[in-house]
Amino acid sequence: MSQGRFITFEGGEGAGKSTQVRLLADALGKMGIPVVVTREPGGSTGAEQIRRLLVEGDPGRWDSMTEALLHFAARRDHVVRTVWPALAEGRWVLCDRFADSTLAYQGYGHGLPQHSIEQLYDMTLGMFAPHLTVILDLPVETGLRRAGDRADTENRYERMGTSFHQKLRHGFLEIARHHPDRCVVVAADAPVETVARDILRAVDQRLLARGR
Ligand code: TMP
Predict the structure, then answer these.
(1) With contact defined as beta carbons under 8 Å apart, do 43 and 95 qualify?
(2) Minimal CA–CA distance to 46: which of 10, 79, 84?
């Protein structure tokens, strides 16, 4: 059985992650690769319940440490119940957000020290990490405008203000700079098909070509 791969998609609000996850899943499916699409916070029954606590309600309802603990509680459940079993079956798991979002949002955005987030990561996931992380980058104003056009109640983070979102963008680019082997930054203010082509090229170069 072929080995599964774990690919995560990261970026600020309105970057088009969900669309790109779907397009990559379609492309890999056409190649005969078994794919599972999932998301964070969420992706398992328990983690979807925790998601409600995180994405709805007053922007200030949690302090940054409590919020990080909730994200890691959801993540542990998601990884144990969904991600690891799928990888063990040889599937490729495409995940809309993962731990880099905690570092960007709760760390760079809300000021929680990076070492605290790393400790939580070690405790809950150990050495487990994505094989590839696609960071979709676009100007904050463009992303917030796109996200604002969606009528949903899951807008707790969208309401956190432009300067918070500037810190996130900077945070994601810093994460990419520190982990060049794992991360690829893709410009997300291009047409959907261009972004999808760039992502597929990165997947091909970094994951598929190695097996050829
Ligand atoms: P989504 O809208 O992309 O599904 O993500 C839900 C929100 O949760 C989004 O605004 C980013 C936020 N988030 C964090 O703050 N920390 C995390 O660790 C994750 C996974 C998401």
Answers:
(1) yes
(2) 79
Residue nearest to atom 8 of ligand 1 (CA): 55
- In this prediction the pTM is 0.95
* Contact partners, residue 120, CB within 8 Å, separation at least 6: 68, 69, 72, 102
List alpha helices for 16-156, DSSP H: 17-30, 45-55, 64-78, 84-88, 99-101, 114-125, 140-148
State in Å: Cα 75 to ligand 1 middle. Answer: 11
Q: What is the pLDDT of residues 160-191, one digit of tens each?
A: 788 999 999 999 999 999 999 999 999 999 99
Query: Mean pLDDT over all residues of the chain?
Result: 94
Which tokens sit at 113? 């020290």
Contact indicator for 178, 22 with CB cutoff of 8 Å: no
Ligand 1 atom nearest residue 17's Cα? 3
As a whole number of angstroms, the distance between CA 34 and CA 117 comes to: 32
Tell me which of 199 and 60 has the higher pLDDT. Answer: 199
Instruction: Indicate which atom in ligand 1 lies nearest the CA of residue 98.
Output: 20
